[in-house]
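FW: tagging you since you asked about this chain on Friday. Here's the raw sequence from the shared folder, copied in full. Didn't touch anything.
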Amino acid sequence: MTKTNIPTVLVVDDDETILEVLEARLLSSGLSPLLADRAETALEMLADEPVDCIVSDVKMPGMGGHGLLREVLANWPHVPIILLTAHGTIPDAVASIQSGAADYLTKPFDGKELVRRIHRLLDAAGAADPAPKAAPAPEASAKAAAKGSPAPESGLTGGEAPAMARFLERLDRVARSTAGVLLFGESGTGKEMTARYLHERSPRAGGPFVVVDCGSTPPTLLESELFGHVKGSFTHAVKDKQGLIEAADGGTLFLDEIGNISEEMQTRLLRFLQEGTIRRVGDTAERRVSCRVVAATNADLAELVRRGEFRQDLYYRLKVVTLTIPPLRERPEDIPALAARFTAGLCRDQGRPAAAVAPGAMARLLAHPWPGNVRELKHALEAALVFCAGDVIEAADLQLDPPPAEFPAPADAPRSLEDSERLAIVRALGQAGGVKKKAADALGISRRAIHYKIKKYGIGDPEE
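HL: got it, structure written out here
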C-alpha cells in the first residue's frame, strides 16, 4: 500500500504509444501511474517505489512479462499483476493465471475495463485505504499463524504423497490471487474445504464465504437463490430477498456441482461473470457485485461441452485456473497422518480418551481403494471407534465395504515406474504392520534396499 491516498499503478510496455494512452487513462481515473518500457526497468522502480498494482505487457525484450511475474511473486507477492498480451489465446491466459497473475486482458483491450479490473484488485487488497494498520496483538498474531496451516481434521493435510504435495503447492499459489478457480475432484475429496482454504488465504479473506449447492437446489428455486428477487415478482415473494451472489460481495462465492445448472442459469451466470452485475428476479435495476468465484464439479465438463449440454464460453470463464484434487487412492502415503488426525479429532468430539490405530488396522486402511475418498476414511474411523473396546482400533473394528466391481483398483491405473514402486512399498509396509524386514521379504528386496527407498520416497512408517 502506498503512503499517499492515491493508489499507484506501475505500467510496463515497450510500446510508447500504449504507455501514453494508459497514463492518461489512469490519471483520469484517479490513479497514479508509473511507466516502464521493459521488465528490468520495472524491477528497479519496484525496489524504490511503493506500488499497489502492476499492468504489464507479456511480449517485451529481455525477461518480458512472464519473467517480471516470477520476480514479483518472489519479492513482492502482495502486489497483484495484470498481464496484457496481443497473443491472447485461452491456454495462454490460463497459463498466466496458473503462474500467479491476478488477471489478464488481451490486446486490443477496453481502457475502461482495465481500470475497472484494477479497482477491483485494489478494493480486494485494501489498497485504496491509506490508513496504516495497527500492529496486531500477540493473540491475533498467534491466531494468524495458526490459520496458515489446514485444520487438524482437514483432508488437505498430509503432503507426504507426491500427488498431494504438488496439489498443495499449486493451491497456495492460486490462493494468493483473486482469479476464478474451477475445482475438479471425485466425491469426498474435499472440494468445499479446498474452496474455503482458497478464500481464507486470499486478499478477500475479510469478506463473506458463501456456498451454493447447485446439485441439490431445485432449478426452479436456483435463480431466486442466486440472484434474489423483489416483492411481488412471483407467488409467495412477499418481500425483497438478497441473492447469494450479492451476499458474497467482497468475498468468495463457491458454486458446488456447477455441472448441474440449467441452460438458462448458465446464460445468466455467464453474464454476471462477464459484466460483474446482477439483476434480481422481477427487478429492472442492475447491481454491481465483486466477488471471487470458485466452482466445483465431479462431472466431466469438457465432455458436457462437447455434447452441447454446457456452454463453452461459460466453461472457459470458470476455467481461469483449474485445480484437480487427488483421490485418496493416489495418495496412500497420507493415510497414516490423516487417520491419526481424524481419530484425534473424533475422540475429542466424543469426549473419550485418545485412540491409536493398530498396525493390522493400518494395513487394511492402506490396502483399501477408498472409492469415497477422504470422507469415507473419516466415516470408517468414526464407526471403528464405536466398536473399539479399548484405546486401540483393531482391524476387526473396521467396517470397510468392498469397492464396486467397476471401481478401478489402484494398481490398474497407469503410473510412472517411480509411482508404482512407491505404492508397492507403502502397501507392503501396511500389510507387514510397518515391519520393514517383512515388507522387504515380501517385495523380494534386501533390508538395505527398502531403507534406501523409504528414505528416497519420503515414506513414513505406518505406525508413526
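FW: The mean pLDDT is 81.
HL: agreed, and The radius of gyration is 26 Å.
FW: great, closing this out.
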